[in-house]
Each structure stands twice: as C-alpha cells, then as structure tokens.
Design a protein that fits this description.
It is a single chain. By secondary structure, this protein is of the alpha/beta class. The longest helix has 20 residues. It is built from seven helices and six strands; from the N terminus they run H-H-E-E-H-E-H-H-E-E-H-E-H. It is 44% helix and 24% strand. It has a three-stranded mixed beta sheet with strand order 1-2-3, with helices on one face. A three-stranded mixed beta sheet has the order 4-5-6.
Length: 186
C-alpha cells in the first residue's frame, strides 16, 4: 500500500510538472507589446518611416511605410522572433525614391521640429511626429499632446510645394481613449 501511495504521488507530481511546463498561449496584448518593442528598438527607423501593427489571435499584421526596402525586411525578421505569434503578414510599403520627396521630407521636418513648441519632441530619441511623403503627398502621423499642436504641425507642413497634407496626428487623450476597454450596456 505504501508503494502504491508513493507511485500515485510521483504520478501526480509528474502530471503537475508537465502541465506547469506547458505554457499557456500568450495573449494578444503581450504579443503586441513585444512586437512594438521590436519595432521601437530597430535603430534604422527615422521620422520619415511609419509602422503600425495589429495582433489578432496570435496573427500579426504589419502596415505602414518605410523609405528603404531593407527596413521592411529587417522589421519582419525582428517581429518573427517574438514568442507566441502564429504568423506575420507584412504589408509595409516602400516609398519610391524621389529627390522631390526627399526635399519635402527634410523641409517639413525642419519646419515642424524647428518650431519652439516642438523642440521637446525633437530632443527625444524617437520623435513622435512622422512625416511620410509619397509622390508629393504628405501624411503626418504620430502622437502630440494637444489639438493645438496637431493643428500647428499641419500648418507648418504646408507651403513647400506638396500636393496635399493629410493630418493623421492623434492627441494623447485620443490615444488613451482608444485604448480603454469598451463599456457595453446591458
């Protein structure tokens, strides 16, 4: 009887150890945070590149624009290293090579980050305002502190020969609101 009890305990411990070692699938938020970390730690990203990611049941979709093809490939390789993801769909576009677009990028970035209201952003390691120029069409992306900053950035980005300016900047409040769990009425 004593041997039977010890055999039963060994079996219970082995079963418990096996189930404890089998990791639960990672949640989408955990995967998203690791993907964001991989993208943010990529040193080749500039204010002229804009990357977004979404995670649904372990499947990651990368979107946005980069200025060079190797950045698109490097980002996908980095993201594939994230533990727990099931697949990566890389929909990052590569902006065309154009001197006109390059000149627009630099002029607009200089105008925005050269303004005293944005000096604090300019001194950050990863400035939050992105200037994406695609064939003369300008898109401002990222996060600013207020609606005043959003409107000023839009104003500063005009008058350089661009075809149009799309202002996709969000305020801190808008980002926080979007991240809050949805409340449902019963």
């Amino acid at each position: 009887m004593k041997h039977l009890r010890s055999a039963l305990l060994v079996t219970l411990f082995a079963t418990a150890a096996a189930s404890a070692s089998a990791q639960e699938p990672r949640k989408d938020l955990q995967i998203f945070n690791d993907v964001a970390d991989q993208v943010n730690r990529y040193t080749q990203i500039t204010i002229f590149d804009s990357i977004s990611a979404s995670v649904d049941d372990g499947h990651v979709v990368l979107t946005g624009w980069v200025t060079m093809p190797y950045k698109r490939d490097d980002l996908e390789k980095r993201v594939r290293k994230v533990e727990g993801l099931l697949s990566v769909d890389n929909k990052i576009g590569v902006l065309p090579v154009s001197q006109f677009d390059d000149q627009l990028r630099f002029r607009i970035a200089r105008a925005i980050y050269g303004h005293s209201l944005f000096w604090g952003y300019a001194s950050m390691a990863n400035p939050p305002i992105r200037v994406v120029v695609n064939r003369g069409h300008v898109t401002l992306e990222g996060v600013v502190q207020s609606n005043v900053e959003r409107m000023l950035a839009r104003t500063l980005a005009t008058g350089f020969g661009e075809f149009d300016v799309t202002n996709d900047l969000k305020t801190d409040a808008e980002v926080r609101e979007a991240m809050e769990p949805r409340k449902t009425l019963n």
